[in-house]
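Next comes the chain:
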Amino acid sequence: MSKGIIVLCAGGTGGHLFPAEALAHELIERGWDIHLVTDDRAERFAGAFPAKEIHVVRSATIGGRNPISLARTFWTLWQGNLDSRKLFRRLKPKLVAGFGGYPTLPPLYAATALKIPTLIHEQNAVMGRANKALAGRVSAIAGGFLPQGEGPYAGKIVVTGNPVRPSVLAEVGKPYKASQAHQPFHFLVFGGSQGASYFSEAIPAAIKLLSPDDRARLVLTQQARAEDEAQVRAAYQAMGVKADVAPFFKDMPRRMADAHFVMSRSGASTVSEIAAIGRPAILVPFPHALDHDQAANAAALQAAGGADVIKQSELSPERIATILSSAMHEPTRLAFIADKARSTGKPDAARLLADVTEAIATGQSMTAIKKGVRP
């Protein structure tokens, strides 16, 4: 028998949807029915989302200062709020949880107005704009990298870590097998929805600078935007490099586990997955990220010795080539870094977040919830 309905709300990108998906699986196992509220961008990521229903609610991003554009944006958000109220009156959820992005504003505002218990989960070390707008209204704030006990909402914050998907959990515990001299060296490069264009230019240029012997060992997986894909693939074919290039890989967790070395952006989900699986990485924070959240996310892994963090402005093709060549000839060092990365992982974050979610849905106090969460 179902315990009731919980509604999860997330912007339509992987960084928001993946932790929501991980929580959904955990809550379903505990007997809850899950519904997802998102926007029309989510089709690419939400196909495997285990929701009884997926609801698209009208939303818009607040940006710029043009009065007419702002008026249209707020009108759309208000319409989404009305859509959400109608939906919640029909579903009667026990709790509504948001995972960031502007599409969470209408449903979370509607839920708080209807006195439904609410939760937001902030994946990053710096709270995003949508979550900031909701922080004062919701019942509790769960954090992936948020500092606990700091800021105006300290009393609401409980740190659970960032839930990782079942496909990531399936790779947790897979040992790191260093690549020895003359063995294939698996190099994984990915940049997220906003960061792949830089790597599409820099990585082929760097690999061209490697020695012929190093290029012969390389087995590359690289995420590239659709508009860059053909150009990047052609560059590797011209160099005779074994490369799999695509805009999106559905089996990314397996590819991460198979990698000897990773270079990526440092979105919260990316950092959490690298740590949970435990692979050595170079993290390149997206330089235009709002509030520099990617740099803050990367700092925790760097502090533990599980990754190096390098600014994009300091990462020329020549430097990438030097870093990659060194990595290919230092298997013991890479194995050490992989172990340090794994030591920071929180593969049980979905369980902890589910504990918090259930506690709020059943009316427990924040004091009791914080005592009950033991990472």
Observations:
- The chain has a mean pLDDT of 90.
- The first strand starts at residue 5 and ends at 9.
- The two ends are 29 Å apart (CA to CA).
- The first helix runs from residue 14 to 29.
